[in-house]
Amino acid sequence: xxxxxxxxxDVCTGCRVCELTCxxxxxxxxxxxxxxxxxxxxxxxxxxxxxxxxxxxFCGKCxxxxxxxxxxxxxxxxxxxxxxxxxxxxxxxxLVS
Length: 97
Prior knowledge:
The chain has helices at about 15-25, 60-65, 75-85, and strands spanning about 5-10, 35-40, 45-55, 70-75, 90, 95. It has about 100 residues and is of the alpha+beta class. The chain has a 3-stranded antiparallel beta sheet. Strands 2-3-6 form a 3-stranded mixed beta sheet. The longest helix has 11 residues, at about 15-25. The chain is globular and about 40 Å long.
């Protein structure tokens, strides 16, 4: 079953704990450059946007340790239904290569 991560931009603080958690889980070291999730920041507006690398296997480690609970994992079908009722600020994370 395919999965996606839904992001709630209203609560993300840009702490980048997700990056550190991912790099530790996948590579055994705290190194954001090796993470499969990256947080892009627009500091002028205080907006943060995590993006996923295509290597992400949706293990959920980033979700478990997000202090603001800004990330949630869903089956793709579930996410599609949820997105119909979605408010601005919650959306699936984009994938980058």
